[in-house]
């Protein structure tokens, strides 16, 4: 019967191993080509060696090293005896215990890291009282807020003689009990040194202090503030807080000092209690 000879490339493809691996096994004396052409140097493997390759792969999957597999074939046993299997089982159990310990340690590190990141993202602060100039009105979207401040609120506050202490502090909070797609009812508040006489646009009052507020740093355009509110409310629920009033959006960095909307910093403050 004519013996089939398989070139190294075909043998590699049929057995699912790389040519580099086959050359390495050849150097180890584990799987030597059945025939090497003396003129071309081509390496040929036999059909029977496909079965040996399968056995080698199985032993590797069971955790036996190439050195151990070479020894098995040198001893002509080709398969581990019961004593070797018992030893390998004990070694595997030890590795499992080590992996379980490592798994526990990694989980602890991950949870600590998540906790640290959450603490960096959320802070609990007391908010002091202050005198504010308040404007209540409607905007179609938050992109109108800049022009509203520059063209309406700012000039009116200047006309009334308002002085704003440093650092500046201004925020908005939404009014009403439901979402209206055509407009957003807001109150815009800005800290001032002292109250002036109210006008049709501006009303002055003492903003009361807040003993506990969840504060969250949000970077991005104002259209994504709803995502920030969702995170703050989820944190409040998880930590067992009761919400006292609607959240404030405090404007730190915006179009006035950052061209890139992704760098706009808004701090969401949610007054809460336990």
Structure notes:
By secondary structure, this protein is an alpha+beta fold. 41% of the residues lie in helices and 26% in strands. Strands 4, 5, 6, 7, 8, 9, 10, 11 and 12 form a 9-stranded antiparallel sheet that branches. A 3-stranded antiparallel sheet has the order 1-3-2. The longest helix is centred in the middle third of the chain and has 40 residues. It is elongated, with a radius of gyration of 36 Å. It starts with a strand and ends with a strand.
* Gyration radius over CA: 36 Å
**Shape-level CATH architecture of the largest domain:** Alpha-Beta Barrel
- Residue-averaged pLDDT, rounded? 88
Estimate the strand proportion.
25-35%
Q: What share of the residues lie within helices?
A: 40-55%
Shape: elongated
Low-confidence stretches: none
CATH H-tier superfamily of the largest domain? Regulatory factor, effector binding domain
Which features characterize this protein?
7 helices; Multidrug-efflux Transporter 1 Regulator Bmrr, Chain A; alpha+beta; 274 residues; three-stranded antiparallel sheet; nine-stranded antiparallel sheet; 3 domains
Q: What is the topology?
A:
Elements: E1 5-7, H1 8-15, H2 19-28, E2 35-36, E3 43-46, H3 47-61, H4 66-74, H5 82-121, E4 122-127, E5 130-139, H6 145-159, E6 170-174, E7 184-191, E8 203-207, E9 210-219, H7 225-239, E10 242-243, E11 248-253, E12 265-273
């Amino acid at each position: 019967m004519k013996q089939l000879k398989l070139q190294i490339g075909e043998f590699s493809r049929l057995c699912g191993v790389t040519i580099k691996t086959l050359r390495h096994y050849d150097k180890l004396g584990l799987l030597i080509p059945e025939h090497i052409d003396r003129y071309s140097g081509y390496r040929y493997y036999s059909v029977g060696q496909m079965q040996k390759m399968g056995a080698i792969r199985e032993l590797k999957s069971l955790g036996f090293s190439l050195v151990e597999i070479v020894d098995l074939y040198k001893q002509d046993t080709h398969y581990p005896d019961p004593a070797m299997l018992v030893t390998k089982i004990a070694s595997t159990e030890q590795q499992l215990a080590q992996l379980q310990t490592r798994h526990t340690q990694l989980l602890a590190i991950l949870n600590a890291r998540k906790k640290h990141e959450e603490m960096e993202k959320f802070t609990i602060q007391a908010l002091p009282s202050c005198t504010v100039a308040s404007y209540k009105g409607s905007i179609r979207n938050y992109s109108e807020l800049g022009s509203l401040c520059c063209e309406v609120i700012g000039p009116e506050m200047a006309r009334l003689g308002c002085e704003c202490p440093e650092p500046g502090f201004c925020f908005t909070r939404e009014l009403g009990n439901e979402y209206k797609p055509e407009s957003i009812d807001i109150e815009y508040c800005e800290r001032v040194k002292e109250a002036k006489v109210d006008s049709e646009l501006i009303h002055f009052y003492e903003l009361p202090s807040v003993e506990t507020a969840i504060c969250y740093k949000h970077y991005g355009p104002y259209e994504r503030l709803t995502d920030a509110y969702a995170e703050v409310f989820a944190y409040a629920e998880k930590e067992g807080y009761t919400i006292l009033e609607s959240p404030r959006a405090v404007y730190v960095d915006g179009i006035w000092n950052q061209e890139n909307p992704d760098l706009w910093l808004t701090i969401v403050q949610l007054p809460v209690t336990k």
